[in-house]
Design brief:
single chain, alpha/beta, Rossmann fold, 2 domains, 7-stranded parallel β-sheet, 15% strand
């Protein structure tokens, strides 16, 4: 019997992958995997650490002795509002692979809109040789909202591609060579932005944030003609009805969406068929299980050595 209590795992994605990696993860203490029928009735009062993604509603009642909660992803909005949430540290998942994948997706979407990929796709299917003259990246300003680990990596990689990049966050961040804006300067930031990239966490302030009023404040006289909205942050930060109407009315020239108010996106959503809209099924940056468990093991080891945990969220801010 291990001297260390097992890690409680309640993750509602990729059960096969989680089960496979758990065979070798937490070797010194083992785990209780609530996705495994054999573990569902286990006594959870022994658990001191929990790794969670959209956990069962009664989890904290069943596991009253937790010392640290680990999120199974970069976001923590699926935990913050839960009943009985104990006053203990909540650690979010930060991983080089997750960050890199997100930046790949953001750069790809910006380039597809820059180079008119949607129009090329249509021409290809019609077997039409229809050349397009696209602006250069340097003529286009990408405004990145959310300047945490993911946002700052996206900013750096968009700059490498030659885009003019500006950044916005609630409180100002200093980034070398990038003009940044804070909460009071939102309108000035939007007025500069041709392609808006949303990487904000979900908080009460950001729920329904990307709406028709915001889209109207984006730059209208830029090299792309009409502004583009790209969101890989949180689906409930966007008002999908407003995205649809903004594209239909020409306020927006297109969109790339990886997240949605309700997932999976309903098959009758008008978003599927709108012109110049790219849809991906919340897979821009999927948590890779091996890296996730390694991250948790590292943080538990730090905690037990008496060192400070990394990536602890600020509860008041919600991220």
């Amino acid at each position: 019997m291990s001297a260390h209590p097992p890690v409680l795992v309640d993750i509602k994605f990729n059960p096969e992958g989680v089960a496979r990696v758990l065979k070798t993860a937490f070797a010194d203490r083992g785990s209780i995997n609530l996705a495994d029928p054999a573990d569902r009735a286990r006594d959870l009062s022994v658990a001191e650490y929990a790794l969670l993604w959209k956990p069962d509603a009664d989890l904290f009642k069943r596991a009253p002795n937790l010392k640290v909660i680990f999120s199974g992803g970069a976001g923590v909005d699926h935990i913050i509002g839960m009943d009985g949430l104990p006053e203990i540290p909540i650690v979010r998942f930060v991983d080089r692979s997750l960050t890199t994948r997100m930046s790949e997706w953001v750069v790809m979407q910006c380039l597809m809109h820059l180079r008119g990929q949607y129009a090329h796709d249509i021409s290809q299917r019609r077997r039409e040789w229809a050349k397009l003259i696209a602006p250069e990246a340097a003529e286009v300003t990408v405004g990145v909202m959310g300047l945490g680990v993911l946002g700052q990596d996206a900013v750096a990689k968009l700059k490498v591609m030659g885009f003019n990049v500006v950044g916005w966050s609630r409180t100002r961040k200093q980034i070398d060579g990038v003009e940044t804006f804070d909460a009071r300067e939102l309108d000035g930031f939007l007025a500069r932005t041709d392609i808006l990239v949303g990487l904000l966490p979900l908080t009460p302030d950001t729920t329904g944030f990307y709406d028709g009023g915001l889209f109207k404040k984006l730059r209208r006289d830029g090299a792309l003609g009409r502004p583009i909205f790209i969101n890989a942050g949180r689906g409930r930060s966007q008002v999908e009805a407003d995205i649809v109407s903004a594209i239909r009315s020409g306020i927006l020239g297109g969109a790339s969406l990886d997240v949605f108010e309700v997932e999976p996106l309903a098959s009758d959503s008008p978003l599927w068929e709108l012109e110049n809209v790219f849809i991906t099924p919340h897979d821009a940056a999927v948590s890779e299980e091996t890296a996730l468990f390694r991250h948790v093991e590292t943080q538990i080891a730090r905690f037990e050595r008496g060192e400070p945990l990394q990536f602890v969220i600020d509860r008041a801010a919600g991220y």
